[in-house]
Specification:
The structure is a single chain. The protein is mainly α. The chain has helices at about 25-30, 35-45, 60, 65-75, and strands spanning about 20-25, 50. Strands 1-2 form a two-stranded parallel sheet. The chain is flat and about 45 Å long. The model has no long low-confidence stretch (mean pLDDT about 75).
C-alpha cells in the first residue's frame, strides 16, 4: 500500500471527521437563540460558527464579499 496525504480529521472536524462551518446570518440569528446554536454546534464537535452580515438565506447572492471571505477563511484553516 502506498502512502498518501494525511487525511485524518483536523481542527474543525465535525460529524464523521468532516470539517464543518455553520453560517449564521441576521435572519437566522433572530430566529435561533444562543441555546439553539450551542445544540447545533454540539452536534458537530469542532465546528466553527461564521457570521455573515446583511444576508438571509441566500448569503452568497445577498452579500457575496463577506460570504466569500468566510468560506475562504474556513478553507484556509484546513491546511493542505
Amino acid at each position: 500500500m502506498t502512502e498518501g496525504p494525511d487525511r485524518s480529521p483536523g481542527p474543525g472536524a465535525g460529524p464523521g471527521g468532516v470539517p464543518t462551518a455553520i453560517a449564521l446570518t441576521p435572519i437566522l440569528s433572530a430566529r435561533y437563540r444562543a441555546r439553539d446554536l450551542e445544540v447545533i454546534r454540539a452536534a458537530a464537535p469542532g465546528s466553527r460558527l461564521v457570521t455573515i452580515p446583511d444576508a438571509g438565506h441566500m448569503a452568497p447572492l445577498e452579500n457575496p464579499a463577506p460570504t466569500d471571505a468566510a468560506i475562504l477563511g474556513f478553507l484556509a484553516t484546513l491546511g493542505g
